[in-house]
Amino acid sequence: MKKYLILLMIAFAIFSCGTNTSIVNSWRDPKITVAQENFKKVLVVALVKDEASRRITENRIAASNEIFKTSYQYLNETTKSLTQEQKLKILQDENFDGVITLRLVSTEKETEYVPGTYTGMYYGGFDGLYTGMYGYGFGNWYGMYSPNFYDPGYYQETTSYMVETNVFSLKENKLIWTGTTKSDYVTDLGSTVDAIMQTVVGEMRKDGSLPKK
Length: 213
Hints:
Elements (H helix, E strand, L loop, with lengths): L1 H12 L7 E8 L13 E6 L3 H12 L5 E3 L13 H10 L4 E17 L2 E2 L19 H8 L4 E2 L2 E16 L4 E10 L5 H19 L6
Helix pairs in contact: 2-5
């Protein structure tokens, strides 16, 4: 059991960079923790409509360690018409003992004002600065300083993504941990997946679902 728990921790450890993702809320089963589960094979399921985004998300996590497997290999168009029981049996026959799901809950658009910045010459130090400029016209002076004079403020629109992450035990056939994260200033799906996993792991360590560092 220790071997696979260590593998799980190593896999999560790669998500250790800075993040613009924060935890909104979380819950764990008080009777069982991820640390108590003997996860040897975990299915990664990204519940998104876009197939490309699904594969990017699942591949990103699955590439971190061999215990993670992408769901599109097992749950795809060929299994779409199967019942829930039949799909569960496929996972049991493939010896999966855990499942991690990520689901986009909502998106929120926000508009914020970015103030301008003054980058020109410091007022108060004119003595001496103008000594070598006497005799030059306004054009020379303006051409020297105007490009760095003022960067005006502007409004920008950002989109925040709320993502729900769940951890299921197939052995217990129950949800053992769930949490919702909020990601701001998203520009790259892959790095956002990393940030979500980093935030989730941090919260799970905090609530005792995973051992502390």
